[in-house]
Specification:
By secondary structure, the protein is mainly α. Helices cover 76% and strands 0% of the residues. The chain has one domain (7-141). The chain contains six helices and no strands. The longest helix is centred in the middle third of the chain and has 25 residues, at 47-71.
């Protein structure tokens, strides 16, 4: 199974994620954890809380349209696994998010930047689990 890693685009994406997280924290004092933003969108504490969450989600969803406007092409998305595997993976990630009280963006980007010990443990757990999963799928199951 080939990995299509693009260092330049990945670095740009990382900078944009860091900038968005910094601006959200600096402007309204909130953590840019994607799953927390999504959960709060469906159960907001108040109308103002819903508005910033809606704006963040709109930005996440509309980003491909910005790429299309800039390049004339939609970004190519290739998912090399069947839909059932995506569904199972999504369920497992959802369970992990609940158990960790946050996701990779909340813990890995924002929590580590705040030197949170809890986020360090959560991020190490995410990364170790990911490495083991990739190894098992690519080298044990796939042969």
């Amino acid at each position: 199974m080939e990995t299509a890693f693009t260092p330049g685009l990945s670095a740009i994406g990382g900078v944009l994620i860091g900038l968005a997280a910094t601006l959200l924290m600096a402007s309204i004092g909130r953590i840019a954890g994607a799953t927390g933003i999504l959960a709060g969108f469906f159960a907001p504490a108040n109308a103002g809380d819903w508005m910033w969450r809606a704006a963040m989600l709109a930005g996440m969803v509309s980003a491909p349209l910005l790429v299309h406007a800039a390049t004339g092409e939609m970004p190519a998305i290739t998912i090399p696994v069947p839909n059932w595997a995506l569904a199972i993976g999504g369920f497992i990630v959802g369970v992990g998010v609940v158990l960790a009280s946050g996701c990779t963006s909340g813990h890995g980007v924002c929590g580590l930047a705040r030197l949170s010990p809890r986020s360090l443990v959560a991020t190490l757990t995410f990364m170790i689990t990911t490495a083991v999963t990739v190894f098992v799928i690519r080298h044990v199951i796939a042969g």
